[in-house]
Task: inverse folding
């Protein structure tokens, strides 16, 4: 990923944007952190938050006109937080040392004329940054119009104490100066730049252009006057009322302009968010209790510490995190998309794929798109992770263990044991081409064949069949070469069949075809059923209470037509529908998408567990993997195809267990065999010797080895190798045998015992990596 790409990705995530209170504040005080420290009862830390951004916090903390409260997100649900009152209490109770961190001294000399709030702020900012500053005040004290405020609001000793820090910061302060044109010209010659406090100097003729309020005219963005090196700010009391924080900003702007002038950089560039500004941060108020604003028992003295604590706890600590709230993957890694983008970029720069944490993180995303749906700015982690996977593959840093089994399973679907393309029996042309999907064939083979026969009965022009994998596993694994190869094979078969219209029973296949081969005009089986009529045999058998929670596959979130079609079919069958929380535009992946289960099985199991506990009703899926993954967690769930073609299985489809990967491959073979039988092309395959071994595997062991992606075919090969080569080890504890075999990148280990004319499998495990030094 290039740096500019990272910036583009980061800019999409708004989590680090300032909350409304900070954006509304002319000084951008971090009110969110300030309130968080008070919530913890740490008043000294709260004071440090103010001191970091706010000059003279003892003054401003007492008199701030708190524009932040007008935009506080808490406003609609109980009233805005009393930030101003909390600031006042914070600075009143603070007795610690008041420190200002100064940068090393610079040789630049700056004059500040007038020591009102804008002037002393400009001096404070410049002194902090190491400038040599002289303050010239016509009056006999610093502070200007601050002394006009009521004593009760701003005690005089506070003004003196707070402004005395300028002397500590080594300011050259000169009071009682007779300021006129002569002195002004002299100072302009003597100093590199001059700042004028318009509040203190109003009415003094300096031969500078004035605005309609009689104040020295300035650029709103920079505070620049019509004279080079001369800047001005302040005077809000002459424009509708004194605003302490705006007056402070009026001093801060020209100070920053002078810093830029000394650095010889543009005065205006990148200053659009200086002062009050808008923010892109989105904060949901859903579920926020409308707690009313705390009222101080003593309206004169204000909040007690206990009252302040209660008021601060009303702050909802604004943040977005909408994607993290919905996605278990994003939540699990304890961050948010902008942070993840940086991690991916930095890992690519340091050593691509070197860290296992990075490998697992990048490959755990299901690419389901839920994050993009809920994000106010459409940030899609799937694209980011897929790009990183492709880069890892290109640079040969992708560990084989993460995707090898899925790619092998895809190769099986595209090999001679399953792949098939034929016209309808007795026909030489096809107007339609049925693409049922490899996973549906692997879980409901009889229903797939029945649905194909149904299509041949209901559609005219001939319905061919194409058994193949759409290439989704390769796409998710970042293997663009294998993905292209799979699509090229499908495109070639489709062209050879006369370019018929594709019908598919899989939402993932439909999505792949729509995005990558739209010329095939793919349509779902469910849409065809709505057009030509529901099968006569269809029924709602085996549904507890006749109500189901409809499981929408994640790839249908942008396909409301198909989602509505499914519900129309269910209503036609007399089935009552419960809409699950994650449905419609909001479905979360079942753990199969993006090959999450291969890279991070624990996370995938947690995703399934969360989805299966959303309702006590039976579930009904129209994705083979959703159905099987939920069934593996013990959820009663059926597939729509089992209700449309129930005669094949009979009984209660929601009670059917999960399908092992070994069974999937066998079921795909059965589909091909049944199709060939209909075509009169059935051929008897010659079984390999190892295939003749009889195995006994308990359900618990079967589930364990299936989760490890170990096939019964693998187990037979290992046992056959151990028995015929003699390379097996006998256990002293129970007399069982342990054999191993490394046919490729995977080393399989099987513990077994001879039983009659076969073998009982006790356990099996594997290492999906190259292990050097073991005997074959």
Result:
């Amino acid at each position: 990923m290039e740096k500019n790409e990272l910036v583009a990705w980061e800019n999409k995530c708004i989590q680090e944007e300032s909350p409304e209170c900070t954006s509304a504040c002319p000084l951008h005080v971090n009110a969110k952190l300030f309130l968080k420290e008070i919530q913890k009862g740490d008043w000294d830390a709260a004071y440090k938050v103010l001191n970091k951004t706010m000059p003279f916090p003892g003054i401003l903390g007492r008199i701030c006109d708190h524009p932040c409260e007008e935009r506080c997100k808490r406003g609609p649900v109980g009233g805005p937080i009393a930030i101003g009152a909390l600031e006042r209490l914070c600075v009143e109770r603070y007795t610690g040392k008041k420190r200002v961190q100064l940068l090393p001294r610079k040789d630049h000399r700056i004059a500040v004329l007038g020591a009102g709030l804008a002037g002393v702020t400009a001096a404070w900012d410049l002194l902090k940054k190491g400038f040599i500053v002289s303050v010239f005040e016509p009056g006999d004290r610093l502070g200007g119009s601050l002394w006009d405020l009521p004593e009760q609001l701003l005690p005089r000793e506070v003004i003196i104490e707070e402004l005395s820090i300028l002397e500590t910061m080594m300011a050259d302060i000169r009071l009682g100066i007779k300021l006129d044109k002569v002195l002004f010209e002299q100072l302009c010659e003597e100093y590199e730049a001059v700042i004028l406090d318009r509040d203190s100097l109003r009415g003094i003729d300096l031969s500078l252009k004035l605005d309609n309020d009689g104040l020295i005219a300035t650029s709103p963005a920079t505070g620049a006057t019509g004279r080079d090196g001369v800047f001005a700010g302040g005077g809000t009391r002459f424009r509708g009322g004194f605003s302490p924080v705006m007056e402070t900003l009026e001093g801060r702007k020209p100070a920053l302009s002078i810093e830029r002038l000394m650095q010889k950089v543009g005065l205006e560039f990148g200053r659009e968010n200086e002062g009050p500004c808008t923010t892109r941060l989105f904060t949901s108020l859903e579920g926020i209790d409308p707690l009313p604003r705390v009222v101080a028992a003593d309206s004169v003295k204000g909040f007690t510490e206990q009252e302040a604590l209660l008021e601060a706890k009303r702050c909802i600590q604004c943040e977005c995190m909408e994607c993290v709230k919905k996605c278990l993957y994003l939540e699990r890694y304890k961050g948010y998309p902008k942070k993840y983008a940086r991690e991916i970029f930095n890992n690519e720069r340091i050593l691509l794929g070197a860290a296992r944490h990075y490998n697992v993180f990048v490959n755990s995303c299901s690419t389901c798109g839920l994050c993009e749906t809920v994000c106010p700015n459409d940030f899609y982690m799937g694209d980011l992770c897929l790009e990183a996977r492709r880069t890892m593959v290109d640079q040969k840093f992708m560990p084989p263990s993460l995707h090898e089994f899925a790619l092998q399973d895809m190769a099986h679907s595209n090999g001679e044991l399953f792949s098939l393309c034929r016209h309808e029996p007795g026909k030489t042309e096809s107007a339609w081409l049925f693409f049922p999907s490899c996973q549906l064939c692997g879980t409901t083979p009889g229903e797939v064949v029945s649905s194909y026969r149904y299509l041949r009965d209901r559609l005219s022009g001939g319905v061919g069949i194409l058994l193949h994998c759409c290439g989704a596993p390769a796409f998710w694994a970042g293997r663009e070469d294998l993905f292209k190869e799979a699509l090229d094979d499908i495109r070639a078969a489709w062209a050879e069949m006369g370019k018929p219209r594709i019908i598919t029973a899989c939402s993932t296949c439909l999505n792949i075809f729509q995005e990558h081969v739209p010329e095939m005009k793919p349509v779902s089986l469910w849409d065809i059923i709505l057009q030509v009529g529901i099968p006569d045999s269809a029924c709602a058998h085996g549904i507890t209470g006749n109500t189901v929670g409809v499981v929408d596959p994640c790839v249908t979130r942008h396909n409301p037509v198909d989602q509505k079609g499914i519900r129309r079919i269910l209503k036609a069958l007399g089935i009552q529908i419960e809409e699950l929380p994650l449905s419609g535009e909001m479905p979360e992946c079942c753990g199969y998408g993006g090959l999450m289960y291969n890279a991070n099985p624990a996370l995938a199991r947690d995703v399934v567990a969360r989805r299966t506990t959303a309702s006590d009703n039976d579930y009904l899926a129209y994705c083979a993997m959703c159905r099987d993954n939920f069934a593996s967690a013990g959820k009663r769930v059926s597939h729509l195809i089992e209700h449309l073609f129930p005669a094949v299985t009979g009984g209660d489809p929601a009670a059917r267990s999960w399908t092992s990967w070994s069974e999937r491959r066998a079921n795909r073979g059965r589909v091909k065999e049944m199709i060939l039988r209909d075509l009169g092309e059935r051929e008897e395959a010659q079984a390999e010797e190892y295939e003749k071994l009889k195995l006994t595997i308990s359900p618990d062991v079967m589930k364990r080895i299936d989760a490890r992606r170990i096939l019964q075919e693998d187990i037979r090969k290992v046992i056959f190798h151990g028995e015929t080569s003699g390379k097996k080890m006998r256990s002293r504890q129970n007399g069982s045998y342990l054999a191993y075999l490394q046919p490729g990148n995977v080393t399989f280990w099987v513990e077994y015992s001879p039983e009659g004319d076969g073998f009982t499998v006790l356990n099996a495990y594997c290492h999906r990596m190259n292990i050097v030094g073991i005997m074959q």
Notes: The longest strand covers residues 758-768.
